[in-house]
Amino acid sequence: MDIQSIKNRFGIIGNAPALNHALNVAAQVANTDLSVLIVGESGVGKEAFSQIIHALSARKHNPFIAVNCGAIPEGTIDSELFGHEKGAFTGAVDSRKGYFETVNGGTIFLDEIGEMPLGTQARLLRVLEAGEFIRVGSSKVQKTDVRVIAATNKELLEFTQNGKFREDLYYRLSTVPIRVPSLRDRKEDIPLLFRKFAVDFAERYKTPPVQLDDEARNLLVSYSWPGNVRELKNIAEQISVLSTDKQVGANELRKFLPVEKVTSRLPMVIGNGSHGGTHEFSNEREILYKLFFDMKKDVTELKKMFVEIMQNPGEAAAAAAYTKESLLREYPSPVELQQPANVLPPTYLPQVSSPQPAVIMPHEEIHEHEEVEESLNIMDKEKELIVKALKKHKGKRKDAATDLGISERTLYRKLKEYDIND
Ligand SMILES: Nc1ncnc2c1ncn2[C@@H]1O[C@H](COP(=O)(O)OP(=O)(O)O)[C@@H](O)[C@H]1O
Ligand SMILES: [Mg+2]
């Protein structure tokens, strides 16, 4: 299959030589069973590449699963990937198959491979070298035939030098490395990508697509795009939603760009006097809300709970001591989190707190005393709601999370944080 038809089939936009080269390598390696290491910054399309490789391989009718190694707690990753036996550890009430068992015949995409614990790396190496694995708590060696595609946005070779990553595994994985270029290194593709996302959006919502004038296009191209294609897509969609004028100039575009550049990731200050019209003001408010959604859907959820508590100021909170850190942990930065489909029962979740990059929310600044009171309430209420939802859905996390309006991943984190065993 030639490059252009791959692009058409998978909706890949761009014509930069480095991108074409990466696609070429992907197409060539797809039909082998070789491990592939995809290297590139966040949002460049690493996962998209892994899907292309799988879809072009002989395994295409077999399962493909993406696992984010950085999103699974160290204590559960072995069990997630390789399964465990009943009684393997406290709370392992049943045996469970891991992904290397269930995906047999297919492809596993191991994202953020650099975050994989050393012990897990040893197990992975065994799979790659001998096609063998052992469930946690078992002594029985099992066979599996899984193709591994790994991805990293870190320099893995450096990790091997300071002992964070096994050198033998590194070389095993990087037989065929694919480097997906950053957007700032293929600026010629930026207008094409923007156009695609604007058109996609317009088709979805049956509106005319937004268009940039020359000055706006130059601004778009000169921006550094730290979040790469993902960021560009977000911004194209924001502009599509919020711009009343479909002809977007540089001044209008500028309203959307600087926000992403602010290091604290805080939205811009609104109502600073430079905007007269109420229309513009409400427009910026909308942008703000949209950004909040992007940063963390939980904010909405917390707001809802807030209202609930205000209307129903029940019993005061008891145990949980509120700390600023715990609130900060609630607002990790908008990294992509992929929770694999079935998560482990919480009973054997280790009591580790996954250090998440924090985002400081503006309302933290306001009256500390009130804040402490209410936060205690929120945490209590939240815990209560979670327990209720789990009960209602007989411990089924997926359903409980849907009911709560949060992601499974968030529920997972909260269970751990509140030490809830269902
Ligand atoms: N060249 C491209 N053309 C069109 N869309 C792309 C391209 N590269 C990435 N995307 C889109 O950008 C988003 C982020 O890509 P993803 O593969 O998740 O990045 P990564 O895994 O590197 O963080 C996805 O929605 C993906 O479909
Ligand atoms: Mg990704």
Automatic annotation (TrEMBL):
The keyword DNA damage does not apply. InterPro entries: AAA+_ATPase, AAA_lid_NorR, Homeodomain-like_sf, HTH_Fis, P-loop_NTPase, Sigma_54_int, Sigma_54_int_dom_ATP-bd_1, Sigma_54_int_dom_CS. Keywords: ATP-binding, Nucleotide-binding, Transcription, Transcription regulation. Gene3D superfamilies: 1.10.8.60, Homeodomain-like (1.10.10.60), P-loop containing nucleotide triphosphate hydrolases (3.40.50.300). PROSITE patterns: SIGMA54_INTERACT_1 (PS00675), SIGMA54_INTERACT_3 (PS00688), SIGMA54_INTERACT_4 (PS50045). It comes from the Bacteria. Residues 12-241 form the Sigma-54 factor interaction domain. It holds the Pfam family HTH_8. The keyword Ribosomal protein does not apply. PANTHER family: SIGMA L-DEPENDENT TRANSCRIPTIONAL REGULATOR YQIR-RELATED, TRANSCRIPTIONAL REGULATORY PROTEIN. This is Sigma-54-dependent Fis family transcriptional regulator.
